[in-house]
Design a protein that fits this description.
Layout: E1 4-15, E2 18-29, E3 33-37, H1 44-51, E4 59-64, E5 67-68, H2 74-79, E6 82-84, H3 97-109, H4 113-117, H5 120-141, H6 158-170, E7 176-180, H7 188-204, E8 209-213, H8 217-223, E9 226-231, E10 234-239, H9 241-246, H10 248-259
Parallel strand pairs: 3-8, 3-9, 6-7, 7-8
Antiparallel strand pairs: 1-2, 1-4, 4-5, 9-10
The protein binds adenosine-5'-triphosphate and magnesium ion.
Amino acid sequence: MSDAMIEVRNLTMRFGGLTALDNLQLDIHRGEVLGLLGPNGSGKTTFFNVLTGLYKASAGTILYDGEEVIGKTPQDIYRSGVARTFQRSRLSLPLTVFDNIVIGDYQHMGHGLVFNLFRRRAFRAEYERYVEAVRELLAIFSPPLVGRLFEPVETFTMIDRRRIEVCRALMSRPRLLLLDEPSAGMTHDETHELMDDILQVRSKMSDLSVVLIEHEMNVIERITDRCIVLNYGKKIAEGTYAEITADPDVQTAYLGEEAA
Ligand SMILES: Nc1ncnc2c1ncn2[C@@H]1O[C@H](COP(=O)(O)OP(=O)(O)OP(=O)(O)O)[C@@H](O)[C@H]1O
Ligand SMILES: [Mg+2]
């Protein structure tokens, strides 16, 4: 079997006259941490949205273990092992850590929590299974959160909220985790702590592939195995951190943004 878990070929996504992804070709390898870089508006989030089934590509293919992803529902893709976090937090602040993690998973799994409320014994057993599963996950990802499972999210710091979102994505035990700017709004130190956690998860879940959209270059340098740079929806560079930062096209793309 090839190294590539995901193979993206000729992928194009148009919104009216705007081409957000332009004939994109890339692979995501098993077990790697891949950095996805590019100036604002270069198509990074759009790529996640197409890969997770939120948007249907205008053209091209995405193979996941050789099987076409485009045309599948977001639920099917989630169930097949692709999970994500969003650029803007999607936590419900008044609800507890547990509720947020479980509701996220239930929504994607598509079996209704309300329906189960009418089957109280089944619900009880399922509820306890969930509590156990959430505790296990938090114990790996963020042990201090285990004791605060039933506290509302609004009482947590920014970094803990981000940890909760990552845990929610991990509930499905994904094979591919997509993180959209997890460091947004955090301090330098918090960002590095969160990256430590992500490296920790990866060491415990050795098959897990991670795609990280991130603007902070020192984070990219520290945790990625490989990087891909987008500009105007096209791949302009691919390689190690050292390779892509030395690339003149990448330098121009970022300088162009600063000048603008
Ligand atoms: N649903 C949509 N409808 C119309 N245009 C969209 C939509 N989603 C994204 N776009 C456009 O597609 C382009 C790529 O946007 P995208 O959000 O993928 O960029 P990005 O690389 O994630 O940027 P950022 O770093 O700012 O998050 C932008 O020009 C954006 O305005
Ligand atoms: Mg984005």
